[in-house]
Design a protein that fits this description.
Chain lengths: 454, 90
């Protein structure tokens, strides 16, 4: 039988180390909502989401009570809208009106975010894909809960540089459209290379076409738990360090598995995956940078950071894989700047630069995340940053992403406040030299040699 | 059997166990195991109970025990055993 010590350990993780179920996400296929008439397509979308996800919030709250663990977010991801709206949308405004429908449905069911205002264009863009991409600034400035993502490349297809160029402009335009709110729209827009179908985390969540009608994915998080466990093994060698991370990751993922199974049972929707990602929040102690410091760095960004992050990410995966029958999504560690107090401190101290963050993304879950840059950064420069990050993903056969915020009207040294889970960020300098001629070439970068595995 | 773990933490005072047990008995909740210690004046108790025949819904049980805890000046938490079992047993 469970003993005193074990009960206390679990409850300490929840109460003091911010262990939580970060999100229960229902993936909903909207492929059966496709219609040549825009109004009827929107009605089908609204009806389907509000039917399938109607009990999501109450179920999340029930589970929270039952196990005594916070379920922070309840979310929905849907089939990429470029596929759903292709038959009825003739203009970017048509697509943006679907975004409004998604937003209304999200408000009706009471969820925190809805993801899937997306296009998958890793090799080429259809007319619908391009219309959706061009509608993103309007869509994100006229909705509150909608998140957008675009997959621009993959190891199998190479990188669609035409789309990369376009997304540089779209990121800039989204920043302009939402400049009254410190360009907040860009915090809900992410571009990917090798995007996974079953990612429960925003802004990149969408319901892949390879998925079933509806699926439950759960994301668990708890950087504080890992940091606290590591505090107890200060000065020990790497074997002890890695073993500690692995054991902790195992325990945390088991909770995710339990919650996912329970939610699946209560909602009568099949269980997809558990994603164990150390995803920080601005709360004190809920920081990935603090783990890196506990491993032995003065600040995140100091020499040794990439190695420390690599071992952290790998041990988290190793512990997580044994704890759940289906681990998926992006499992590992996230390194968003604005959402992590330790990262913010490192940037302010001058220890962490954009280039070091790029190096770190080679070994962690995602990519350049929640980084504020000067508002006067050129669109081509943003495309260049995106291309660099996607190349890392393409060559290393991993998911990489860019969620970067050019804050209109602000420059290096100033601060931008997003509020809530998104936190605040100091604006970071960007390399001032031009990549115009590179970005303007057009076409696509071919798939790398190791993609030929057939 | 649906087992539930109740934990009580707080400053020690007279009658903590009595009040919690009375509540449980009133609601037909059977106590399977109790362990309790006092560390530096702090009262620490864990109970394993069977809520199968309980006359209250689980959510209410949590809320009412929490309120009872506030009355006594301790923190009472009520959680399904599964979360501990999954985390600490392979």
């Amino acid at each position: 039988m469970i003993n005193f010590y074990e009960v206390n350990e679990t409850n300490r993780m929840i109460e003091e180390d911010c262990l939580d179920v970060r999100t229960i996400t229902i993936g909903i296929s909207l492929l059966d909502c496709i219609d040549s008439d825009l109004a009827s397509c929107k009605k089908k979308i609204y009806d389907k989401i509000t039917t399938v996800a109607k009990d999501l919030v109450s179920t999340g709250e029930y589970i929270e009570k039952e196990f005594g663990i916070p379920v922070v977010n309840k979310r929905v991801s849907v089939t990429p809208i470029a596929l759903v709206g292709g038959a009825c949308c003739k203009t970017p405004e048509d697509f943006a009106s679907i975004a409004k429908t998604l937003d209304e449905a999200a408000h009706t069911v009471g969820i925190n975010f809805i993801g899937g205002y997306s296009a998958l264009v890793s090799k080429g863009m259809t007319t619908a894909d391009e219309l959706l991409i061009r509608s993103i600034p309007l869509a994100l400035s006229t909705t509150e809960l909608v998140c957008s993502s675009v997959n621009l490349g993959s190891t199998k297809t190479g990188i669609n540089m035409d789309a990369v160029k376009l997304m540089g402009e779209i990121v800039k335009e989204t920043a302009e459209y939402t400049k009254e709110n410190d360009s907040l729209g860009c915090a809900k827009l992410v571009v990917f290379c090798n995007a996974p179908d079953d990612n429960p985390f925003m802004a990149g969540a969408f319901h892949g076409v390879t998925e079933a009608d509806a699926i439950i994915n759960v994301g668990v998080s708890g950087p504080g738990v890992v940091r606290n466990a590591l505090e107890k093994v200060r000065g020990e060698n790497f074997e002890v360090l890695c073993e500690t991370i692995k054991k902790t990751a195992f325990k945390v993922t088991r909770v995710g598995q339990l919650v996912a199974k329970e939610a699946s049972k209560l909602l009568n929707i099949p269980f997809g995956i558990v994603d164990l990602s150390l995803a920080p929040t601005p709360a004190i102690g809920d920081s990935v940078a603090d783990i890196l410091c506990e491993i032995g760095l003065e600040y995140a960004g100091a020499p040794g950071t990439t190695a420390a992050l690599a071992l952290l990410n790998d041990q988290v995966k190793k512990g997580g894989v044994m704890a759940s029958s289906y681990v998926g999504g992006l499992s590992g560690a996230f390194i968003p700047v604005s959402e992590d107090q330790g990262m913010i401190d490192a940037v302010v101290a001058g220890a962490l630069t954009l280039e070091k963050l790029e190096a770190m993304t080679c070994v962690c879950s995602v990519g350049l995340d929640m980084i504020a840059i000067p508002g006067d950064t050129k669109a081509t420069t943003i495309s260049g940053i995106i291309a660099d990050e996607l190349a890392i993903g393409m060559i290393n056969q991993k998911t990489t992403a860019v969620r970067i915020i050019p804050v209109i009207g602000k420059g290096v040294g100033e601060k931008v406040e997003f509020g809530g889970l998104l936190g605040y960020a100091p604006i970071m300098p960007v390399n001032p030299y031009s990549c115009d001629a590179f970005v303007n070439r057009g076409g696509r970068i071919p798939a790398p040699i190791h993609s030929f595995k057939n | 059997m649906k087992k539930t773990i109740i934990t009580v933490v707080g400053k020690d005072t007279v009658g903590i166990i009595a009040k919690v047990c009375t509540y449980l008995a009133d609601h037909k909740i059977n106590i399977l195991d109790i362990s309790q210690t006092i560390v530096q004046d702090f009262f620490n108790m864990m109970m394993v109970v069977d809520t199968n025949d309980a006359t209250v819904a689980f959510g209410e049980l949590c809320d009412e025990l929490e309120a009872l805890g506030e009355e006594i000046g301790v923190i009472i938490k009520c959680q399904r055993e599964d979360i501990f079992d999954k985390m600490h047993r392979i």
